[in-house]
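Lab manual, section 2.4: Encoding a predicted structure.

Procedure: take the sequence of the chain (131 residues), apply the prediction step described in section 2.3, and record the output as structure tokens. A sample record is shown.
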Amino acid sequence: MIQAYKEYWHNMTVMNASAKRGQYWWPQLVNYLVLALYSILTGVSRYIEITPDDVTVIKEWNTITIIFILLNALIWFANFTVRARRLHDRNHSNWWILFYLIPIIGTIVIFITLILPSKSNTRWPQNQSEF
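Recorded output:
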């Protein structure tokens, strides 16, 4: 788990490799825990509100909200690249990420693809551990 998380951050700009299931899912779990702990410890919900129509409203700009937004942006970028590597491990191209543009169905398709076991592939034989 720790090794997968180190590789997640070390290879956050690598797109031309593959990532096994553990190399994708362990960092996802750790990131959710990190964001939850940060939110609880800093009380970020006092400064950021998500309205019923999914609009994020920042009530007050301060160090806590700026760090939270930067942390989210960094995690989003790292997730984007590890998702591409995970798709490569299933022998799919990065363009499969565009399935997210299809409401609900696209998210389900990508989720199922990411939980399925690896496929042998010749286009991206190098794993992220080899970088």
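Check your result against the sample. The chain has a mean pLDDT of 90.
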